[in-house]
Amino acid sequence: MGVILAAVVGLWQTQNHWGLRLIALGFVLCGGAALVLTTGWVQVVVAAALLLAATGFSVLVRQFFAQQDAVFAKGLDQMMAQYSGEVQGLYEGMRGWRHDYHDHLQALKAYLDSQDTAAARAYLDDLEDKLDTVDTLVHSGNPMLDAILNAKLTLAERDNIPTNVKAFVGATPLIADLDLVVIVGNLMDNALEAIEAQPAGEKRRLRVYIAILKQQLYISITNTRPADQQIDIHYASTKNDKRGLGIRRINKLVAKYGGMINRQYEEAVFVTEIAIPLSHDHSRANSDH
């Protein structure tokens, strides 16, 4: 019986890799056959051998997924680090443009003093076009949070996904920037992916609420999803291992800060809530990936 139980554990750990599942199933069948067809000390020896093999297989499976996650996570972290630098640069560019506001006013006054209204109007039109390219959808008070949210919301806007977004954290120190980008970025990616997978004609919606509540960083994301989408107990889509990796990354980082995650799904709706206690050390925390 121990052989069968060990193999079942290994079978569960193989997740969506059917090749490994078949190997684990072989251990289950062999273990059952050993218990039925052998007797006495032979049964004990065979059962012990199968138990050892099944245990070794379970360990190998664990190592396989750990290595797989490490490879994907390393690539993800490198991408997120580069992305963080890029969006931070864009945000600084926007702040620089706003800093030039006084100079723009002086230029307009000069046109008006010379009664050149046509030039003044052309100048205003040019400023309006530039403002549209740098204006952000969210102003939370945290540059990195604004950057990642606005980048993802731009994608939602491009795909005509209705959104309801409220984010305000002020100047409160949050978690390390890279960790914040990974958590929020993966949450938004998973939500957008689920919405985009909905059949044409289904109601689509994305709701984001981020704030400081009771000295905790509170993140709530609600998205619609295909009504027939299969979700396992790990809350990873059974059709996309990348989504599962993202969820495991979120879980690890939230645990790193002693936070809590609550996931709920109903018919055609998925909700993720995260609460991370805040401390003054979070903004200086080193990323532990």
UniProtKB/TrEMBL annotation:
Transmembrane segments: 18-37, 44-65
One GO MF term attached to the UniProt entry: protein histidine kinase activity
Entry EC no(s): 2.7.13.3
Name of the protein this chain belongs to: Sensor histidine kinase
Domain Sensor histidine kinase NatK-like C-terminal: 178-277
Top EC group: transferase
Keyword RNA-binding set for record: no
Pfam families registered for this protein in UniProt: HATPase_c_5 (PF14501)
Keyword line: Kinase, Membrane, Phosphoprotein, Transferase, Transmembrane, Transmembrane helix
PANTHER family, per database record: TWO-COMPONENT SENSOR HISTIDINE KINASE
